[in-house]
Write a structure and sequence with these properties.
Helices cover about 35% and strands about 25% of the residues. It has about 160 residues and is an alpha/beta fold.
Length: about 160
């Protein structure tokens, strides 16, 4: 196969995942506004919806890197997906905390005051609610930062999603 491809002066390139392609596209093609600020063209996003927003988290892992997938859902049902690449080695629980913190920071920046958190990780939700004690030293700073961050919201509800 390689000889056949080389014979026609073709170059084989492995296809990226769709999520990675979308992130790469937006990173390489920012939208310039008149004042030079890069932003989303959707004016409705800048008007924060009153009511309870929903947020879902997931970890994205492949052989090369860790990442985070976050889905924000406004009260009227529109979806705002976020994808973040982590540039450091992390445990499963560290990545879960990173996901929650990144999502909550995004909501805080949007001015959201009420949120319902959906997650499949009982450990992090129970630690965030202080139902379980954080035993691992490297997770204590995550839990403390998340606790401080959640104080900026008027209402937070946690819902555990069964993995099945």
């Amino acid at each position: 196969m390689v000889d056949l491809v080389a014979k026609f002066d073709l170059k084989y390139v492995a296809k990226q995942t769709i999520k990675g392609s979308v992130v790469s596209f937006y990173a390489k093609n920012p939208i310039e506004w008149e004042d030079g600020k890069e932003d989303f063209p959707d004016e409705d996003i800048s008007d924060v919806e009153l009511g309870t927003w929903k947020i879902y988290f997931d970890r994205a892992v492949n052989q090369y890197e860790d990442g985070i997938g976050i889905l924000l859902i406004i009260p009227k049902g529109s979806h705002i997906p976020l994808a973040i690449k982590l540039n450091f080695e992390a445990t499963n629980n560290m990545v879960e905390y990173e996901a929650c913190i990144a999502g909550m920071e995004a909501l805080r920046e949007l001015g959201v005051k009420e949120v319902e958190v959906f997650w499949d990780r009982t450990l992090v939700i129970a630690q965030a609610q202080k139902l379980w004690k954080v035993k691992k030293e490297h997770l204590k700073s995550y839990q403390q930062y998340l606790e401080d961050l959640t104080k900026t919201f008027d209402k937070i509800e946690y819902t555990i999603i069964p993995r099945a």
